[in-house]
């Protein structure tokens, strides 16, 4: 396109993120964003007023945005799998670049969307889909491109981090902390996507694709949310020198890439333990660089629009022939032929096991015997609260590194044991001695 021509933008969605993106473009009087023109905005409800977004730009007809020849670039900030995926595909087929914040569509349809970008010679950028305002994808793709990424460890869901932080600080229950997060607007009325870790799983899928070239589809990622974490777990973990965080971890090993999202005990003296509230943090390990730490606001209108607009301006810059832009966040072009994503069975970590056990002589020996038969070595056993009325005591057993498959088998046997009233929780301990 001629250098004096403006870059036309069509926006799909004008909610929290979309309205902010629209305002940034419309309000720009100088600087790079002033070379953008917003031509149309797709919404569901045309009658809802959106501060700073003129109603004349709104439409409920996707074709008015997708087929508008003035649009060089489509920004998708509707969310959800469909129709977002179809709209992005249609935009790229008609030669338009796409910027999106949509983790779900990318995690589930990354191969297809990346393929469409390559086939049609357009750019697909999605920095805002992971870590909100933290520029983690650009760092992986550009700054660390000479490195082989060995591991990623991250707190990439602000809602669950807020809930766990407030449970830790106030000693509150999961239910109370969730209610507080909802009242403050940090959790949705339906918190499933966050607390059951679907959101973190989608983001880890995107990170693993980009960092390892692995086709880490959501169903290959081990996922556990935080509903089962109790105030007692945080209290007992604290007494042992740990806190509990929902971690998203992808690690390269000799057998492939293992991706997992689950609550983990994190030693209190490492930086990850101090990432509190709605903050996000990502720790990357490159073979040349070693560890790199990124921390920032992982959600919200401002941080997310910051990432979206970074992508938009990079593409616009590249279209004007200034170089440096226009490169797709494609990951390995052959992610489907990348390293395999391996399951959990051969993972080796330490475990925290909380049991409600009968409070009498000989019980420990029976429990220790089950661990021994499962080839799991016990590092320590601590007795915490006792329930005198029911004759039960809370036992916390910390193990040495053990194979996941052995631990799960042992957990099943413990649940059957006559001296164990219930296995209350089984939480992996994240190892910070080796990176
Ligand atoms: N919010 C954040 O902090 C954040 C952070 C990182 C990434 N993201 C991602 O950014 C995207 C947008 O999030 P958001 O919080 O801005 O969502 P939102 O507030 O719910 O806004 C969604 C927008 O899309 C429109 N929309 C949804 N489905 C549509 C359909 N079928 N046809 C036409 N319009 C439709 C809605 O129209 P109406 O307004 O008429 O309902 C609304 O304007 C999501 O992919 C999300 O995961 C958000």
Give an overview in words.
The protein has 435 residues and is α/β, with parallel strands linked by helices. The chain has 3 domains: 7-135 and 301-337, 3-Layer(aba) Sandwich (Rossmann fold); 139-297, Dihydrodipicolinate Reductase, domain 2; 348-429, ACT domain (Alpha-Beta Plaits), CATH 3.30.70. The protein contains 13 helices and 18 strands. It has helices at residues 16-27, 62-66, 84-93, 103-120, 136-143, 158-170, 174-183, 192-195, 198-212, 231-239, 301-319, 363-373, 404-416; strands spanning 7-12, 36-42, 58-59, 73-76, 97-100, 124-125, 149-155, 222-223, 242-253, 256-267, 279-286, 290-297, 341-342, 348-358, 378-387, 392-399, 402-403, 420-429. The strands form 2 sheets. Strands 7, 8, 9, 10, 11, 12, 13, 14, 15, 16, 17 and 18 form a 12-stranded mixed sheet that branches. The protein has a 6-stranded parallel sheet with strand order 3-2-1-4-5-6, sandwiched between helices. A hairpin with a 2-residue loop joins strand 9 (242-253) and strand 10. The longest helix has 19 residues, at 301-319. The chain is elongated and about 80 Å long. It binds NADP nicotinamide-adenine-dinucleotide phosphate. Residues 13-18, 42-45, 48, 77-79, 83, 101-103, 128, 132, 299-300, 304 line the site of NADP nicotinamide-adenine-dinucleotide phosphate (NAP).
SSE layout and pairings?
Layout: E1 7-12, H1 16-27, E2 36-42, E3 58-59, H2 62-66, E4 73-76, H3 84-93, E5 97-100, H4 103-120, E6 124-125, H5 136-143, E7 149-155, H6 158-170, H7 174-183, H8 192-195, H9 198-212, E8 222-223, H10 231-239, E9 242-253, E10 256-267, E11 279-286, E12 290-297, H11 301-319, E13 341-342, E14 348-358, H12 363-373, E15 378-387, E16 392-399, E17 402-403, H13 404-416, E18 420-429
Parallel strand pairs: 1-2, 1-4, 2-3, 4-5, 5-6, 8-10, 10-13, 10-18
Antiparallel strand pairs: 7-9, 7-11, 9-10, 11-12, 14-16, 14-17, 14-18, 15-16
Helix pairs in contact: 1-11, 3-4, 4-9, 6-7, 12-13
The structure holds NADP nicotinamide-adenine-dinucleotide phosphate (NAP).
């Amino acid at each position: 396109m001629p250098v004096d021509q403006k870059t036309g933008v069509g926006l799909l969605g004008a909610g929290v993120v979309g309205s902010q993106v629209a305002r940034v473009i419309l309000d720009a009087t100088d600087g790079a964003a002033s070379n953008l023109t917003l031509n149309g905005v797709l919404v569901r409800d045309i009658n809802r007023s959106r501060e700073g977004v003129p109603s004349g730009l709104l439409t409920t007809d996707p074709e008015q945005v997708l087929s508008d020849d003035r649009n060089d670039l489509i920004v998708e900030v509707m969310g959800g799998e469909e129709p977002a995926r179809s709209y992005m595909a249609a935009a790229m087929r008609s030669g338009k670049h796409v910027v999106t914040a949509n983790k779900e569509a990318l995690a589930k349809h990354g191969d297809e969307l990346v393929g469409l970008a390559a086939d049609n010679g357009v750019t697909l950028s999605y920095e805002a889909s992971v870590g909100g305002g933290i520029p983690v994808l650009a760092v992986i793709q550009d700054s660390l491109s000479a490195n082989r990424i060995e591991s990623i460890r991250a707190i990439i869901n602000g809602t669950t981090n807020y809930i766990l932080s407030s449970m830790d600080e106030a000693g509150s229950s999961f239910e109370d902390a969730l209610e507080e997060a909802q009242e403050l607007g940090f959790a949705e009325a339906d918190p499933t996507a966050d607390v059951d870790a679907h959101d973190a799983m989608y983001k880890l899928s995107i990170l693993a694709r980009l960092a390892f070239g692995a086709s880490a589809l959501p169903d290959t990622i081990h996922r556990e949310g935080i509903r089962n974490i109790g105030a007692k777990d945080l209290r007992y973990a604290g007494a042992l020198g740990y806190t509990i965080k929902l971690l998203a971890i992808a690690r390269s090993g000799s057998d492939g890439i293992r991706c997992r999202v689950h609550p983990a005990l994190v030693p209190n003296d490492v930086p990850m333990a101090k990432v509190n509230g709605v903050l996000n943090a990502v720790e990357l390990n490159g073979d040349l660089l070693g560890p790199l730490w990124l921390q920032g606001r992982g959600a919200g209108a401002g941080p997310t629009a910051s990432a979206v607009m970074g992508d938009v301006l990079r593409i616009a810059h590249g279209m004007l022939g200034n170089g440096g832009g226009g490169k797709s966040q494609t990951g390995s072009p052959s992610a489907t032929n990348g390293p395999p994503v391996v399951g959990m069975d051969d993972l080796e970590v330490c475990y925290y096991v909380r049991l409600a056990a009968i409070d009498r002589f000989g019980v420990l020996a029976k429990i220790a015997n089950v661990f021994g038969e499962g080839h799991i070595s016990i590092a320590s056993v601590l007795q915490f609260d006792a329930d005198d009325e029911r004759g039960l005591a809370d036992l916390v057993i910390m193990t040495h590194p053990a194979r996941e498959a052995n631990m799960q088998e042992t957990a099943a046997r413990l649940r059957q044991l006559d001296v164990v009233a219930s296995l209350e929780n089984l939480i992996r301990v994240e190892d910070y001695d080796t990176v």
